[in-house]
């Protein structure tokens, strides 16, 4: 078996793309999107029909320009998600507007609107994960959504602190951003390369995985944002890994022999102290972690900028 086939024996493989046609050959279980990936795919002429449909929907929704833009943007996300679900047998992750990352009830309202659009398209909410930035407000919003049977994927996650808060909120899934953690440490240390076995992003997921399994949390862990296939190999055994088509191709062409690097049995033997968190301690721990706080803020800014660009495209057609 090639490396990708071996990986699927230990870990659920997820495709990280808005370009759904590129994922068909790899047969992932689930798929994830984000505003940046949707923007890239939306600019592809092959998907013009999905954009035209979103614009027509926005125009028909009535109201002022702001309302139409909001509805058009949501319909773009849902259109791509619906097409992805024709390919993957499992779930698709669709992201809330990143500009709402510090607004609990606006996040909830946006998430419910996305779910309504999916259900109008005949897609069950069980096949959708609503992606929310792992700010304190985002986590609290996700906690409320989970109680209403709207399942969430907490994204832009860079620290054990965020992971613990998510687990306590009983969210469905978290997405630790492996590659972006690596980026920060490479810049901080002024180095071009850090071996995968010493990769701070990889080690962060190991830490989160061991903590979750040690204390029997049900929240799923999905490593994300990879820079190379070696990071993926070092996380064999993680619940899920979401991987770009480029790296899926590299794994398929590779014949590296795999064995689990992560397991529940190993985690349960770890000597780990349980951490109690409230809002003040969450904010303090994030403040004390420059990598996590900087990358969270940067990620929200990047996704927000890409949403504005997508809005301009929709507005030009309205």
Reconstruct the topology from this structure:
Blueprint lengths: L2 H8 L1 E5 L13 E3 L2 H8 L5 H13 L4 H21 L6 E4 L8 H17 L7 E6 L2 H12 L4 E6 L2 H9 L4 E4 L1 H12 L10 H15 L5 E4 L5 H5 L6 E4 L1 H9 L10 H5 L10 H9 L2 H28 L1
Parallel strand pairs: 1-2, 1-8, 2-3, 3-4, 4-5, 5-6, 6-7, 7-8
Short description:
With 318 residues, this protein is α/β, with parallel strands linked by helices.
Q: State the domain count.
A: 1
Task: Indicate the CATH topology.
Answer: TIM Barrel
Question: Helix and strand string, N-terminal first?
Answer: HEEHHHEHEHEHEHHEHEHHHH
Sheet with most strands: 8 strands, parallel, barrel
The amount of helix comes to: 40-55%
Oligomer: single chain
Give the spatial strand order of the biggest sheet: 1-2-3-4-5-6-7-8
Beta-strand fraction estimate: 5-15%
Number of helices: 14
- The structure class reads alpha/beta
For this structure, what is the CATH homologous superfamily?
Aldolase class I
Shape: globular
Name the average pLDDT: 96
Low-confidence stretches: none
- Overall radius of gyration: 19 Å
End-to-end C-alpha gap = 50 Å
Q: Write the CATH architecture name.
A: Alpha-Beta Barrel
CATH class (first level) name: Alpha Beta
Overall strand count = 8
Fold and architecture overview:
The protein has 14 helices and 8 strands. The protein has helices spanning 3-10, 35-42, 48-60, 65-85, 104-120, 136-147, 160-168, 178-189, 200-214, 229-233, 245-253, 264-268, 279-287, 290-317; strands at residues 12-16, 30-32, 92-95, 128-133, 152-157, 173-176, 220-223, 240-243. Helix 3 crosses helix 4 (65-85), helix 4 packs across helix 5 and helix 5 (104-120) packs across helix 6 (136-147). It has a single domain, classed as Alpha-Beta Barrel (TIM Barrel), CATH 3.20.20. The protein is α/β, with parallel strands linked by helices and 318 residues long. The chain is globular. 54% of the residues lie in helices and 11% in strands. It has an 8-stranded parallel barrel with strand order 1-2-3-4-5-6-7-8, surrounded by 8 helices. Strand 4, helix 6 and strand 5 (152-157) form a beta-alpha-beta unit.
């Amino acid at each position: 078996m090639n490396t990708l086939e071996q990986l699927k024996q230990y870990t659920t493989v997820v495709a990280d793309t808005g370009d759904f046609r590129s994922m068909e050959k790899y047969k992932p279980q689930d798929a994830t999107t984000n505003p940046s990936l949707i923007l890239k795919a939306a600019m592809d002429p092959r998907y013009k029909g999905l954009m035209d449909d979103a614009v027509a929907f926005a125009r028909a929704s009535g109201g002022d320009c702001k309302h139409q833009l909001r509805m058009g943007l949501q319909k773009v996300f849902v259109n791509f998600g619906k097409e992805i679900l024709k390919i993957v047998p499992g779930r698709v992750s669709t992201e809330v507007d990143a500009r709402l990352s510090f607004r609990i009830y606006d996040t909830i309202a946006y998430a419910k609107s996305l779910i309504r659009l999916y259900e109008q398209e005949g897609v069950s909410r069980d096949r959708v994960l609503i992606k929310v930035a792992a700010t304190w407000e985002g986590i609290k919003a996700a906690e409320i959504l989970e109680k209403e049977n709207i399942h969430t994927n907490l994204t832009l996650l860079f620290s054990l602190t965020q992971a613990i808060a998510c687990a306590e909120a009983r969210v469905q899934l978290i997405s630790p951003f492996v590659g972006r953690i690596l980026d920060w440490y490479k810049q901080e240390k002024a180095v071009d390369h850090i071996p995968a076995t010493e990769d701070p992003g990889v080690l962060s997921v190991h830490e989160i995985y061991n903590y979750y399994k040690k204390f029997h949390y049900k929240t799923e862990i999905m490593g994300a944002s990879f820079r190379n296939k070696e990071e993926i190999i070092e996380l064999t055994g993680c619940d899920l890994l979401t991987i770009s088509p480029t790296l899926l191709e590299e794994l398929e062409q590779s014949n590296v022999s795999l064995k689990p690097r992560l397991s529940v049995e190993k985690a349960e033997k770890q000597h780990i102290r349980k951490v109690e968190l409230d809002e003040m301690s969450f904010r303090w721990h994030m403040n004390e972690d420059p990598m996590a706080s900087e990358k969270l803020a940067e990620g929200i800014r990047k996704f927000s900028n890409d949403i504005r660009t997508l809005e301009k495209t929709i507005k030009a057609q309205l």
